[in-house]
Specification:
Layout: H1 3-16, H2 39-46, H3 50-57, H4 66-75, H5 80-94, H6 109-117, E1 123-126, E2 132-136, H7 137-144, H8 161-167, H9 169-174, H10 178-195, H11 200-212, H12 214-221, E3 230-237, E4 241-252, E5 255-264, H13 270-282, E6 291-292, H14 297-304, H15 308-313, E7 315-318, E8 327-330
Antiparallel strand pairs: 1-2, 1-5, 2-6, 3-4, 4-5, 7-8
Helix pairs in contact: 1-5, 2-3, 2-4, 4-5, 5-10, 7-13, 8-10, 11-12
Length: 342
């Protein structure tokens, strides 16, 4: 779908999600042939002519002013993130660009230092398209322990968090409320797609997920937009049991396309104890924690004074269900399961 279509589809989908009573319009008991507001009703709310709004929704016009777009956003009851997304779509509609395949993303030095300074706190760094650019041992063990931990070191093999959420049975099982996590992922991808309509890799990812996951296709059609900043999730971890965590997404001003996701738990809670148990199980805090994506595993262990023989003894070959090839991860000592939150 081109930029004209994206703008029109967003307006149509959000208009269909509003009822007249939601915006204080009378219905007079008439039967409605379309879900949600009619075009003329939204045009009335926005203070524009019905014919002009229709041209905008049908892609016949892309030159709406900032004031008109803001008026439409108010009529649709859009939140701030959604309002900005509407402006992004309108900008893309005005300035047609050819889709291009951008180079592989590189971890920013400032973000690299942040990851390396953290130890027991689970951390994952994702790029524009939700590719994992780096993670520490705790982040890998908590969110994707069955995946090759060295994947972020190789651009062609980097795990993708959106793919994992929708296509990986282990990650689906990890989140108790999987639907909430899935909607957050889709909402963030919508936001990024509006900002980067020319990103061919992103377009390919969205096409793949739409084809392979009916859930993704349904959520994508809703045109919901959401910035991933802070969210709380209950996890069912295979090693430490149930825990409730807060995922906070931070960005470095110099690298706004790279997101550092930190996972924390309430101090003194069973969930915090579970995170400590997980850190102990993988050796976090011992000075030998590998940080994939920031350097090679050999460089990390050389810096920590670990001999290759110890590294080799600490790894084991395994294949994830349905996966391809042989993968490696650190073996973990057994630990007691943390209790549930009370």
């Amino acid at each position: 779908m081109d930029a004209h279509g994206q703008l029109g589809a967003f307006l149509q989908a959000r208009r269909a999600q509003l009822q007249p009573q939601d915006v204080g319009l009378p219905t007079y008991g008439d039967r409605r042939r379309v879900p949600g507001l009619r075009r003329e009703e939204l045009a009335l709310l926005a203070g524009v002519s019905s014919s002009y709004y229709t041209r905008l929704e049908q892609g016949a016009s892309c030159h709406a002013s900032v004031e008109v777009l803001d008026a439409i956003a108010r009529g649709l009851r859009l939140e701030e993130t959604e309002r900005l997304h509407l402006h992004d779509l309108a900008t893309a509609c005005r300035h047609r660009t050819t889709a291009r395949r951008p180079p592989a993303e590189r971890l920013a030095p400032a973000v690299r230092e942040l990851v390396r300074s953290l130890d027991e706190v689970p951390v994952v760094v994702t790029g524009r398209r939700s590719d994992v650019l780096a993670w520490n041992s705790a982040g890998h063990a908590l969110l994707a322990g069955h995946v090759d931990p060295t994947g972020p070191d190789r651009p062609a093999d980097r795990p993708n968090m959106a793919r994992l959420v929708f296509l990986d049975a282990h990650v689906r099982e990890l989140y108790v409320d999987w639907t909430a996590k899935a909607r957050a992922v889709v909402g963030n991808l919508r936001l990024v797609a509006g900002r980067h309509p020319q990103d061919a890799r992103l377009t390919s990812l969205i096409g793949e997920l739409t084809t392979r996951s009916p859930e993704f296709a349904g959520m994508w059609a809703d045109h919901r937009v959401r910035a991933c900043d802070t969210a709380e999730y209950e996890l069912r971890h295979p090693l430490v049991g149930s825990l409730t965590v807060r995922q906070q997404t931070l960005t470095v001003p110099s690298e706004p396309e790279q997101s550092l996701v930190m996972v924390t738990a309430t101090p003194g809670s069973a969930s915090r104890a579970a995170l400590r148990l997980l850190a102990q199980a993988i050796g976090a805090g011992s000075g030998t924690t590998a940080v994939a994506g920031t350097e090679t595993m050999a460089e990390a262990e050389a810096e920590a004074g670990v001999r290759p023989s110890r590294r080799d003894a600490a790894t084991a070959d395994f294949s994830a269900p349905g996966g391809k090839g042989r993968r490696q991860r650190r073996t973990r000592p057994s630990v007691p399961t943390a209790g549930r939150e009370r």
